UniProtKB/TrEMBL annotation:
Pfam families, A to Z: NUDIX
Keywords for this protein: Hydrolase
Native organism: Cohnella suwonensis
The Nudix hydrolase domain, residue ranges: 48-176
Cofactor needs: Mg(2+)
Protein name (database record): NUDIX domain-containing protein
Highest taxon of the lineage: Bacteria
UniProt entry tagged with the keyword Transmembrane helix: no
Family membership: Belongs to the Nudix hydrolase family.
Length: 189
């Protein structure tokens, strides 16, 4: 069955009547859709379009690689796992390998997909593909021209402290820490 028919059959499906493009940026775009609600009324939905992203839980010598960088929307520095957006036509695994090496200088000899999740389904279509590796070799850091960050390897205890201190507060890194803890306790994800 095709996805359109499947969506149309859901009792809460919202049919798009009109789409207005509001902003086209280099990373995101914003549109306002007018939709028909299940009860026949209409409403508007503000939607952020994003190409998707990848993130990597990378463990080296029992510690997780993280980067610290300034995040303007929060107006503060954050500690996060290596991550970045998908380039046009890029496969998520290739992007995960690329971002890991660009930001940390480590290359994954093998890498495993853990999960794909939406970041804010109420207004954004972004999907993050989360990967795991503990099979690393030294590569080279290749930061983008507008990217300023530092990399460190932290213990599970340090990660927990960073969460308590608010240094780690983004969903992908919180999920990574909890997945890492689960793996440490049970041997699986």
């Amino acid at each position: 069955m095709n996805k359109q028919k499947e969506k149309a059959r859901h009792p809460f499906y919202e049919e798009t009547i009109r789409t207005e493009s509001v902003f086209e940026g280099r990373m995101i775009s914003l549109q306002v859709d007018t939709v028909r609600l299940p009860n026949g009324e209409t409403a508007t939905r503000e939607i952020v379009r994003h190409p998707g992203a990848v993130a990597v839980v990378a463990i080296v010598d029992g510690k997780m690689l993280v980067v610290e960088q300034f995040r303007k929307p929060l107006d503060k520095a954050q500690v996060e796992i290596p991550a970045g957006k998908l380039d046009a036509g890029e496969e998520p695994e290739a992007a995960a390998r690329r971002e890991l090496e660009e930001e940390t200088g480590y290359r994954a000899r093998s890498i495993r997909h853990l999960s794909s999740f939406s970041t804010s389904p109420g207004f954004a279509e972004e999907i993050v593909h989360l990967y795991y590796t503990d099979d690393l070799e030294q590569g080279e850091v290749h930061l983008d021209d507008e990217e300023f960050l530092t990399c460190e390897a932290i213990s599970l205890e340090q990660a927990q402290r960073y969460i308590e201190e608010g240094k780690i507060c983004d969903a992908k890194t919180l999920l990574a820490v909890y997945a890492w803890r689960m793996h440490a306790l049970t041997g699986s994800f």
